[in-house]
Design a protein that fits this description.
The protein is 22% helix and 42% strand. The protein contains two helices and four strands; from the N terminus they run ββββαα.
Length: 90
């Protein structure tokens, strides 16, 4: 069963692809059948450049649900850490 749950977020960063580093402007997040991960369903994240860039230029990640939750918790804990907050970043 497919969920069709998909969200696209504007982000700012860089990713390393086959042709080197490139700017990332969008992250597409969805929960579906993975292409390669050895699980029935996965949280998939495609980090992509701007809208008019080459669609093959992306960084794709497929995580099982437990790994996705662990990663999300780790990201939030890191951003909430006093040392990071002291830098005044949002």
């Amino acid at each position: 069963m497919c969920t069709y749950l998909t969200s696209t977020e504007r982000v700012a960063g860089t990713g390393l692809g086959a042709q080197g580093w490139f700017s990332i402007e969008r992250a597409v997040v969805y929960f579906d059948h993975p292409q390669e991960a050895p699980v029935e369903h996965a949280l998939c994240i495609d980090f992509r450049p701007g809208e008019h860039a080459d669609p093959s230029q992306r960084v794709a990640v497929e995580l099982d649900a437990r790994s996705a939750r662990t990663l999300a918790e780790s990201i939030l804990a890191t951003l909430a850490h006093d040392e990071v907050r002291a830098l005044g970043v949002d």
